[in-house]
Amino acid sequence: MSHNSFGHLFRVTTWGESHGPAIGCVIDGTPPGLHLSEADIQPFLDKRRPGQSKFTTQRQEPDQVKILSGVYEGLTTGTPIALMIDNVDQRSKDYSNIAAQFRPGHADIAYELKYGFRDPRGGGRSSARETAMRVAAGAVARKVLGGQVVIRGAMVALGSHWVSQPRWDWDEVEKNPFFCPDPVAAEEWEAVLDSIRKQGSSLGAVIEVVAEGVKPGLGAPIYGKLDADIAAGLMSINAVKGVEIGDGFAAAAARGEDNADEMRMDEGDVQFLANHAGGILGGISTGQPIVARFAVKPTSSILTPVRAVDRAGAELELVTKGRHDPCVGIRAVPVGEAMLACILADHLLRHRAQNGETPDTARLPNLRFTKL
User: Fold this and answer.
1) Which helix (H) or strand (E) holds 119?
2) What is the pLDDT of residue 215?
3) C-beta separation of 211 from 285 below 8 A
């Protein structure tokens, strides 16, 4: 199986399976001299870790990361950084009865048609367990970006239940099991998802990720568009079926004058009056907050019987037992943050390679850009 890497100058390769002895990643391209330790990575893994509430899988994985290479005396050396996490709570027997069955909504049949063979234990390589290493890589990417770039994520919809924008409060995200910025919605979601969980079903979600403090000039106009790479990165997350930047699909229903991010001058600063474009124009960052959303489908592993077939071509009704998330979108929040961090770090290094440390504003000597 190829295609286990992403990025150009900040390049991440992940390895391992859900029920193998360990999972890991190799990060190539990290500049030397950055402070990095396991303690810098672990808090982000803890956000994604399973078993922290009744609304996520009860698999108990401590997800303790180990740095195997690329760091000496607390500083990155510029050589490949290898990270590893041991798998300690596999229950492969949960999957023995479905080894020859194709679960609807899963990649079982697609893997079998492509490779003629698959690891049925927890989905093997296609398991969301792999995303733990993306989160670890995202912590390293944040070091590359520097403290001036702040990346945050929130779950903004559970099924058809959306947050209220007037009640949005980033401080609320860490206070509930949904990473929800709306305290009222978070309380309502508990009852909704608890009912769905007890019915043996699942719900999808919409996640929003925002990066503030990103300098203008990242990205390239045609085949290196920043928004295209962000979309590809978010789309590569398990169970994601749609991505939008800024207003996204809502822009199709707007009039031109309403969708335009108009500008005015404010004491020498260019002030954007809106951010419908999500901080990216022509594939290049504008200095405004970068805003992206992605849709996560309902968990395919459910206790409700669904019609399926097996390898022999027999039709059957399938119930997927085991430990599964009633909404995989919850733990996708830190994964989305990590992917956005990795893409931005890659583009920052690519920009430096062509343009130097900062964007060239020689043609605009009197203009300073401020974010919305």
Assistant:
1) none
2) 94
3) no
